[in-house]
Amino acid sequence: MPGKHRIRTSCHKLTVIPLKLEKVHPKQQLDSVIIRAFGRYDLTPQTGDVIVVASKIVSIAEGRLIPVNSVRPSKFANLLGAKWNIDKRFSQIIVDEADAILGGVNGFVLTIKHGILTPNAGVDQKNAPPGTVAAWPKSPDATADRVRVSIWKQFRARVGVEIVDSRVTALRMGTTGLAIGISGFSPVRDERGSKDIYGRVVRTTQTNVADDIASASHMVMGERDERVGLVLVRGARIHLGNFSSELARLKKQDCLVAAKLRIEAISAIS
Fold first, then answer.
1. Both ends of the chain: CA-CA distance in Å?
2. Using CA atoms, how far apart are residues 28 and 52, in angstroms rounded to an integer?
3. Rounded distance, CA 205 to CA 219, Å?
4. Domain covering 65-135+247-270: architecture
5. Which of 76, 180, 189, 238 could be bridged to 185 by S-S, CB 3.0 to 4.6 A?
6. How far are the Cα atoms of 141, 184, 190, 238 from residue 158, in angstroms, in the given order?
C-alpha cells in the first residue's frame, strides 16, 4: 500500500520460561531437582538453551545456611556493626564471607566476593529458613558446571548454565539480575572490530551476555514468595564452549590488592 513500508528485522526471538521448583532442602541433589522440574513442565532443554538457577536454591542445597545464633562476633565485627548499624552477628558473617571490605552505608557493608562488588558479601536472610542467613555458594562456577553435565547426560543437549542473584546498582533504585556462576558458554560477546550503523568501527564495546540473561530471568523469578528458582532461556544467541567466568575484573593475581583493601578497612574502622 502507498505510504507503507515492510520493516525487515534481524532480531532474534527470546523466550524466557519460569519454572517453580519443589522445596529444596540442605544436602539435596540440585541437578535431580532441576531435571524433575523439566519433567513436570513437559519441557526438554535443547542445545543452545541457557538454564538459569537462583543462587538461593543452590545455597540451600549445598548447606550454605548459617544459624545466626551460633555466631560469636569478634571485636572487629562489633565495630563494623556499630559503624554501619548492622547486627553484630550478621556483621561477623559478612566479615567471614567477604574477600575484601571496602566501606559501607547504613545497613550495608560494601564488599568484594568471588571478584564481584556486592553488599554484605552476598549474605542474605530473605527466603532463608528462620534463624538462618544464606551465603553465596562456595564455588558457583563449579555448581553451574555440574548442572550442565547432568543436563547433557539426561537430555543430550549442550546448554549454558548460570547461577544468578539480584543486585543493586549505584545511584539507581531497585534490583536487577547478576550472574555469579557460569558454565558452558562465553559470558561476554566482544563487539570490537564490528561496525555501527554508520560504518564506524566499534573499539571498546563488549556485551555482558551473562548479566543480560540474568536480568531477563530475574524479571520472572521475582524476589518474594514466587518460588521460581529455575528459568529456561531460549534464543539468547550464546557462544557455547568451555569458558571460565570472564566477567570478574578481580583475578587471582589481585588477591594482594583485596587483602590490602581489607587491612585498610580494618584500620579505618578501628
1. 76
2. 18
3. 25
4. Alpha-Beta Complex (3.90)
5. 238
6. 16, 8, 22, 11
Q: What does DSSP assign to residue 240?
A: B
Cell of 182: 557460569
Query: Taking a C-beta distance cutoff of 8 angstroms, is the pair 73, 49 a contact?
Result: no
**At 233, is the pLDDT very low, low, confident or very high (cuts 50, 70, 90)?**
very high
Q: What is the pTM of this model?
A: 0.85
**What is the C-alpha separation between 81 and 78, in angstroms, rounded?**
5
**Which long-range contacts (C-beta less than 8 Å, at least 24 apart) are formed by 84-93?**
84/108, 84/109, 90/120, 90/123, 90/133, 93/66, 93/68, 93/121, 93/123, 93/133, 93/135
For the chain, residues classed under CATH 3.30.1330.100 are: 12-58+136-239
In this prediction, residue 222 carries a pLDDT of 80
Grid coordinates representing 24 are: 529444596
What is the enclosing helix (H) or strand (E) of 188?
Answer: strand 188-190
pLDDT, tens digit, for every residue of 183-197? 999 998 888 989 888
Strands 65-67 and 108-113: unpaired
**Cβ(243)–Cβ(251) under 8 Å?**
no
